[in-house]
Amino acid sequence: MLQLLTTIAESEVAAESAEAAGGISALGLNWKSFLFQLITFVIVLLILKKFVFGKLIAVLDARQKAVEDSLKNAAETEEKLKGAEKTIAKMLSDARKEADEVISSSQKEAAQAVEAAEQKAAKRAEHIVKEAKEQMNVELTKARAELKSETIKLVAVAAERIIGEKLDAAKDARLIDAAITNATKERA
Fold it and tell me: How confident is the model over 101-144, as pLDDT tens digits?
């Protein structure tokens, strides 16, 4: 449509330019052509305003709002990211402290367990040594009693051979006790 109007305007301009050689046409302008182009421009401007500019402005406004929202969301996301990084750093620091405390506590507990085991082993060893000493004393006492009994028998046999007669049990016991007492005194 615009092309049709332009073609009509050009044919009229050509006809009029031949007619008017003075006034405004001396400058190279044709007032009828100018007026026709001005009317065409206003019609095109009104058509664009009614059908295009409203939608174009709405699209541009929506686009601008979307960009502003994106920038706002990006700023909020960046703030959240910084907050999350601080939170993570704090959590890592707390976890390290807790791990150090757990390790320290475990080391203390292990040292205490080792010390308790050593004490228990020492007590057990003392108990075993004590039992062994008691057992040795019992065995020693038994051995002494057996040795005394054997010694008494040997002394009785020796005395009988030396004296040549059998003594009664009471005399035997007195002689043996006296001999053992003398032997003990001589050893000491």
Answer: 888 888 888 888 888 888 888 888 888 888 888 888 888 888 88
Separation CA 150–CA 105 (nearest Å): 66
Q: How far does the chain reach from its first CA to its final CA, in angstroms?
A: 152
Virtual torsion, Cα 73, 76, 82, 83, nearest 10 deg? -130
Paired tokens of 65? 């709002």
Q: In this structure, what is the dihedral angle of CA atoms 153, 158, 160, 162, given to the nearest 10 degrees?
A: -170
Residues 6 or more apart whose CB falls under 8 angstroms from that of 9 comprise 33, 36, 37, 40
Both structure tokens of 115:
């010390």
Is the pTM above the cut of 0.85?
A: no
What is d(CA 142, CA 159) in angstroms, rounded to the nearest whole number?
A: 25
